[in-house]
TrEMBL record, chains A, B:
Residue ranges of coiled coil: none
Superkingdom assignment: Bacteria
Record's protein name: Enterochelin esterase
Entries under Pfam families matching the protein: Esterase
Record's keyword annotation contains Phosphoprotein: no
SUPFAM superfamilies: alpha/beta-Hydrolases (SSF53474), E set domains (SSF81296)
GO molecular function terms noted in the UniProt entry: acyltransferase activity, transferring groups other than amino-acyl groups
Organism annotation: Paludibacter jiangxiensis
Key words, A-Z: Signal
Signal peptide span: 1-22
The UniProt record lists the keyword Iron: no
InterPro entries: AB_hydrolase_fold, Esterase-like, Ig-like_fold, Ig_E-set, Mycobacterial_A85_antigen
Length: 399, 399
């Protein structure tokens, strides 16, 4: 009868061996105390001490277990840091002070860029990347989990796209009250990701659930449904060359009908908004302007805008801004009054540490177009800029 | 006015540069045609051709771009494959024939185990790993997306745990009809992950959504809610030494009240089930047996069971199986009639290519305990075994 126990022991061993092939032993001990002032990044997987962040100096300490490598570096915000190996085979380095917010980074193992497996995997630059979060003080509370308010749900759905001939994935935020009001209908915000990211970006990197929960609980924003889709990233044979027009068809012909069939939506232009970040801002303009019978609220966060189009035209000589205002997007701005009457909100935002669309905004305003312009102080083309943009944008919708 | 366009061009360049630091250029060209018979693995990120799988020979071709590395290997199912470098710096190899189903693997860059960034990131072995899927024929349709049936939703929720003093994440599957029946209440299956995995395993690696959608659409299973939680993985300071008792408290005191407050559940023992795979099977027995006033249906898939306990006792001498049956789990099986009267389903499953609990099952049966025993032919301690287990288990619930 000992046989059974031996078999069982063997099964444990087998399970452990099968788990170990992926290298749990190489993950290395996690128990070392962190240096004074450093705490594990909010992006770390459970038990992982590194990357560790000093909230005061805004420096990051990295530690990578790689006993057999010849050279290990961290590639963070366009600077490479050489790491130093200790006697156990762990490599460490400490970064320069960073801007607050979320940053992607890579580990270079003998020059090969890989994920640091100590953090969650974030889809960026068209593959899974590591991320580190430099924490803000209380001013960042709006995107953190608040245990004292009701929480919405982010629902993961797959649906069949006739247009693409494949199943597509979409994440849909519903407000906390959605379940408690089984007949109430809600307005919908279509919220697009940027280049190289996907439908999970807004919830993972952007913490949109916490932001919306907070705005709705404080009655700053009306309860709404927020739809986050993969756009053309899972359809286009080369997303880097994708025309923005294709995605319009996906949104209008595939996604919107599916959402309106599946959720209790207020299915008219006065209750539909679209916004996007970076490339998703460009997709917002190219989707909304030709479809103003379907959308009356829009936002472009650090987005491609006037004078700047996808598809290789970036190097083309610029028309002057006045012409630009009159001719962009098939002349949608030409008749300012007509535009203002139809579009309830045109929201344009940027970080002050990235190139600004302010001149375009000024030209639009001069022409009489109503624009809400938001600048995120001190932030670049990164997620903190977009969290702040959403936090400013959502309260202005559907009112 | 050319300044604006130049600014805009700079912004594009900046966005692209910021995206490139994580190495999109190093991802390498994806346009090469695959060798005859090979197709991209179902686990690949969009556009990624490799890993590529030959469904007939069940071999996998890997390709890793690593021009600066000295040695690159693939570590798949406990075998290391040396890769060969081409003139562009891409390394390739072809594996031996594999068992059908999902397998984790790692890339070794100069001996350092990292993710292959061509696949989605799956949480396994306590960190993010790559995975490859060796496809089955039509017999695998039950876990694939079926465009002709209604689909449930997997809802991502965060809730505050007083017990842990932190927010916890849970995924909850609701059947397609849930929204259409705003007053109907549903039975609940608590479905646990295994060692080194997390609350996303059943939906990502296990395709539980597709499995449940299919069973419910075919009226093989009753519509039910399925709750997938992280267990103790995000609470315990050393999950590898965790006592299974702790997790019981999380389930019974934190999770169940939250689920029953948030969803329309039939909140009694006749409509509550728990099942888990591997270590989650052990957690199922240690949670359900002392709480048979709360659960009447249970399953342990490749799970730790009689004679085999967590916490370092695996090497202890085995009692004989008759004693085991009478004393295990505080003697829950001793009075077979009493057990059978109370427990509507005790389901135990295994793969035939892993060590089997059959002897324990036989001893239980001999003692008069009603057990449903399922064997997955030809599969090991892996996800295909557990997809099949769920597909056999769920139809037997709540009937």
């Amino acid at each position: 009868m000992k046989k059974i126990t031996l078999l069982m022991v063997a099964l444990v061993m087998c399970a452990i061996a099968s788990a170990q092939f992926a290298g749990i032993q190489q993950r290395g001990p996690q128990e070392e105390a962190l240096p004074e002032g450093f705490k594990p990044s909010a992006t770390n997987i459970f038990l992982a001490q590194y990357p560790a962040v000093n909230a005061t100096t805004r420096q990051v300490m990295f530690r990578v277990n790689a006993p057999t490598a010849q050279k290990v570096q961290i590639d963070l915000c366009n600077k490479k840091y050489d790491m130093v190996k200790d006697e156990k085979g762990a490599w460490t380095c400490t970064s320069d002070p960073q801007v607050v917010g979320f940053h992607y980074y890579a580990v270079l193992i003998d020059g090969v860029p890989v994920m640091d497996r100590n953090t969650d995997a974030y889809f960026g630059s068209n593959w899974k990347s590591s991320g580190v979060e430099i924490p803000e003080g209380p001013e960042g509370d709006y995107y953190r989990f608040n245990k004292n308010i009701p929480h919405g749900q982010i629902r993961s759905l797959y649906y069949w796209s006739e247009l693409n001939g494949l199943e597509r994935h979409v994440n849909v935020y519903v407000p906390a009250e959605y379940e408690q009001n089984p007949t109430k209908k809600y307005p919908v915000l279509y919220l697009l990701h940027g280049w190289g990211e996907d439908e999970n970006g807004w919830s993972n990197q952007g913490h949109m659930g916490n932001i919306m929960d907070g705005l709705i609980a404080a009655q700053k924003a009306v309860p709404m449904i927020v739809v986050m889709e993969s756009g053309d990233i899972k359809t286009n044979p080369d997303v880097r060359k994708a025309a923005t027009n294709d995605v319009t068809q996906i949104y209008v012909k595939d996604l919107m009908p599916f959402i309106e069939k599946t959720f209790r939506t207020q299915a008219d232009r006065d209750h539909r908004a679209m916004a996007g970040l970076s490339r998703g801002g460009g997709q917002t303009t190219s989707t909304v302007f030709p479809n103003m019978d379907k959308f009356a609220w829009m936002g472009t966060f650090s987005g491609f805008f006037m004078g700047m189009r996808m598809g290789g035209n970036n190097a083309a000589p610029a028309p002057d801004m006045k012409t630009q205002v009159e001719t962009s997007f098939n002349g949608v701005f030409k008749d300012a009054k007509a535009f203002n009457d139809k579009m309830h909100l045109l929201f344009i935002s940027t970080g002050t540490a990235e190139n600004s669309p302010k001149a375009a905004v000024d030209a639009l305003k001069e022409h009489g177009i109503k624009v809400v312009f938001h600048e995120s102080q001190g932030t670049a083309h990164e997620w903190l800029t977009w969290r702040r943009a959403l936090n400013e944008f959502a309260p202005r919708l559907f009112k």
